[in-house]
Amino acid sequence: MKPRDRRPIATPRRRPDAAQAIAGLAFVCASSIAWACAPRSAPPSAHQPQPAAAPSPDTHGELASLKLAEEDAVATPEADPPLPFCAPPPATAEARIPMDVAGKWGFARGDGTTAIEARYDEVETFSGGLARVRVGRDWGMVDVDGEVRVPLTYAAIGERTPVTWARDHDRDVAVIDTCGQVLIPGPFIEVASVRDARVVAIRRAEPPIHREYALLDLAGTPRIPWGPEKIFHKYDGLVRVATEGPRSGDRGWRLTDRDGVERFVWPGPDPFFCCQGYTVGLAKDDYNRECLIDRSGAAIIECGAYADLYSPPDPDRPRLWARKGGFWGLIDFSEGTIKTVVPHTFSKVNDARFDGAAKGMTWATADKERVLFDIDGVERAREQIDSPLLEFGELPADCGGLVRWENVEAGERPERMSDGIDTFTAMVPYSELRLLDDQGKVRRKAVDGAIVGDRWLFARGRLRDVCGELPAPRGRWRKVSACTDNPTKAFAIAEDGVALLDLTTGAPIFTSKEARAGGCDDRSVLLRTGRTVGLTDFQGRVLVPQRFHDVDEVTIDGVELYKLDYFGAEFYRDAAHVDDLGGRRPPGEFPETAEREIPPAELRKRDRATLERMLIEMHARYGYRVPDEHLERFEATDWYKPGEYDDYDDPQPELLGPIERINAARIEAALRRAR
């Protein structure tokens, strides 16, 4: 069984998200999880502040007087009692890499030597000096020395943090530390989250279909007592408890600190603390009117002041799109006052954030005009609406002006399509790409064009400089796409190979005649030939040869490694040992056909039947359904899986890797001579 990277094992109903382990009691664990439950309200205790009154049509004046709180007044929690945490796991600067040996899993060092003996049925990668391992049905945890930290007796274990949960085979859950000590015995049916030395636990109540929730400290003392109210321990530092609203069936929220001390009551849907470091959030009252509140429950923008409030374009600035009188405008709510930045005259606003793909801008429409704004509300461009806007951006500084590209109908083109039964040719619309400056003047236009990088237009197989300052680079391509997170380079595919392009000049950096597809990111170039892939650097130097079925660049314990898939076997290697396959060979009678180029003189020594078996076997590795006269021999193997990669009844050389393509051509030539 293969190792599972960054993927927790099965958990009760829903699982927490992954987290990093840190020392002591201060740590971060899973994000909140919701459950279905019948809510009811709980009266505040004597030491808690009284809940805020539910907003109503009569309370507008009171809410309007509330200002933005100067600071988030949080009661200082009492010190947590000392708990018997075990010593942290040992640290190591060496990687611990999952390795399989004859179907069992252990861990190797970066140089391939054994660090932990392969004796487990399944392992997961290390995090914080711990890894989850399984033997049979039982999970536990080991440290980097292979010492068992949590006994292999559990059906499931939570995240690798100082405090986590474990579920036994009777489906009972307890809270444990990473030495296997039981801190809160339960039994619970679920531990929803562990955060800030507090645990949200769930247990069964009578009748069995009911549930009870509580917020516990790590000594097992309830900070919010057991009850049917759902508890959500959120990432924003507030604990949220579902309550009943003023009308039957309504749900409100009681927000408390980590000790269960009530901060305020919100009668409407769950407030979403979204912005300015989670100090303010959008909310709705019991009458479904939108508001903006701070963490004390005070209204910054009173409920009902605007018909709609839209998530801030920039989460770190006090700006919101707000609709009033049927029209949208941009407002600023800093300094406790509401100031209109963009007037409420627009019928529609876009959903792009100022800090996203919009490159510092957003647009709004009014009547038949589209207006482009920057984050300060300054109008950048205005135009008549005659086609749907797709994207917008800024040209390079030395080019000047603003670019907007639009998709306008320009005709139809034939395209091969399929209805799942047959393949046919259909006429489909194509688009004309227009690039305009900030005065609306067309700089470039092209049919079925695309923007590549910051300044290149790709259309009709060629790159053109948007600014018109660089000469058109040589080369005709079927597809050009910018490298992920690298705006200066692009990957180009031609009929006879691929190339890496320098987008500062448009010229090729290197080309590959054997590859037929691939891509690139900020560090390397992936080359694909058939079903095999490899990696090069930006100068074309080979990092991983094109012989693997999958290649991932991963970092384990701070060590950069390649995760390789070689005919179904997964293993990890560093750059110096990427050619070490650990004795693995391609399956079949003739593994050499995928390992090396076979000289024609060697093939001439084989008889015709042997050559035919070699050719069939190369295709059979990729799912080819072999002829009936060979079927019995292939079905007797443990590797022949027709249709695993593709389902085809005729040999398809385009699925073979570069070495296999050369050998296939040579075998076919030898067969022609033999005939």
Task: Give the gist of this structure.
The chain is built from 5 helices and 49 strands.
What does the overall shape look like? Answer: flat
The main sheet comes to: 4 strands, antiparallel
State the distance separating the first and last CA atoms: 45 Å
Strand percentage lies at: 35-45%
Rg, Å, rounded = 32 Å
What is the fold's blueprint, element by element?
Elements: H1 60-64, E1 97-101, E2 104-108, E3 114-120, E4 122-123, E5 130-135, E6 138-143, E7 148-154, E8 156-157, E9 163-167, E10 173-177, E11 182-188, E12 190-195, E13 198-205, E14 210-217, E15 222-227, E16 231-233, E17 239-244, E18 251-256, E19 262-266, E20 272-275, E21 280-284, E22 290-294, E23 299-301, E24 308-310, E25 319-324, E26 327-332, E27 339-346, E28 348-349, E29 361-366, E30 369-374, E31 379-384, E32 389-394, E33 402-418, E34 423-436, E35 442-447, E36 450-452, E37 456-459, E38 462-465, E39 479-483, E40 486-494, E41 497-502, E42 507-512, E43 517-520, E44 525-529, E45 532-536, E46 542-548, E47 550-556, E48 559-566, E49 569-573, H2 600-603, H3 608-620, H4 628-635, H5 658-674
Antiparallel strand pairs: 1-2, 2-3, 4-5, 5-6, 6-7, 8-9, 9-10, 10-11, 12-13, 13-14, 14-15, 16-17, 17-18, 18-19, 20-21, 21-22, 22-23, 24-25, 25-26, 26-27, 28-29, 29-30, 30-31, 32-33, 33-34, 34-35, 36-37, 37-38, 39-40, 40-41, 41-42, 43-44, 44-45, 45-46, 47-48, 48-49
